[in-house]
Amino acid sequence: MVFLASSIISIIFFLFIVYYLVPVWMKHIRLRRDYRNITYLPISRIPFVGNIHQFDKRSHVFSSLLVRMAKLCQQQQEQGCFCLWHSLWPMIFACTGKNLATFINNSKQLVKSFDYTFLEPWLKTGLLTSNNAKWRTRRRLITPAFHDTQLLHNFMLIFNEQSCIFARRLGECIRIGEKGKAFDMFPYISSCTLDIIAETAMGEHVDAQSSEGKN
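and the corresponding structure tokens:
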């Protein structure tokens, strides 16, 4: 009985290695080969680590690392981008306008990153998660909406109304806040954006700004 149980565990472990670890490792090898000409921080020799050992949970320390690498790449005329490895997966940082334009102006690279697959059970493969031909078709359907100037002019009243509420809320924060002390504007901006999008795109008044974050 013990021998049977150990055999089953061994088989499961073997299948896990063959069907999961081997393909993932092979893809990592291909990525390393494809990105070998991109500068990156020294990668740990320990498998599956990448640059994780250099990440810091303190956000300001990690941000300083990225800024330092970006400045270094900008000084090197032949570079302009660098790569950090999050375990087996590379993250490319474009540090110059020329490099960024290469990605933005490329109409062929329409495949979303691996992270989008987690949204597919919820959103299926719509405009946000689809790739290539399917994405082009969906995008072509909504393109006229972004080029109809008269449609945008019709929404100016909503833009102005919600912007006035936004300005009034900021004024209240300045009046009651401590002089010289910073405050987080993100909740105010996001709620204003939500009000504008909900009313213009869906015709619904959600009053996100008036509900003081209770929406």
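(Above: one complete record from the training split.) The chain has a mean pLDDT of 78.
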